[in-house]
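Sample entry (239 residues):
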Amino acid sequence: MLSIIIPTLNEEDHLGELLESIHKQDFDNYEIIVADAGSKDKTLEIAKKHNCRITRGGLPAKGRNEGAKIAKGSLILFLDADTILPEMVFAKVLREFKKRKLEIATFFLVPSGRKMMSKEVIGFTFLYNIPIFLMEKFLPHAAMGIMIKKKLFEKLNGFNEKITLAEDHDLARRAKKFGKFGILKSTKLYVSDRRFKKDGLLRTYSKYLLCEGHMIFIGPVEKNLFEYDFDRYSKNPKK
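Predicted structure, serialized as tokens:
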């Protein structure tokens, strides 16, 4: 079984679209777990409508860990609430994951609803997809979507809940020491461009570039240096 875990906080504008894209897949041996951090909008109503299992969450790392604790599957797929799965993705991904003997994997990202030559798509390609491809073998990056074997996840004691930004990259780098990491080439993951819309391309890229430098030269970011708020990009932020 595949356990799909989604951390949420006020995600009524995006969660439904993600869940619909999951239900449309040509694969039904899965469960969906929503780890909610106290949403005040219709997030939980949407999750219940789609027959998701619900558990209490927190910041993303906490929510993912709590979801993993009750996961029944031997393989876990962590997804951000503002992602969308392409059609027929599970068959491709599971086949590639097994063929390449991967134990943890991530995706190339493409902004949803954008033309191929739009600035958002070009930005993701040059500022994220190409760099993570070039560093795949020696410095793993994993964001928005992560597939990992549950045994490996438990061996790592899950996500480091002390980290305030890029806990997903940290997980990938720790996991690489014990299992094979790879970027899935058979499909891409559609993601919202709300981060670029709210913060701007330059500010968003600069923040993650500084975070990358901190991780490499100092260590994981365990202080809120970059003023990260879980629901910063929702329309109904929790006060």
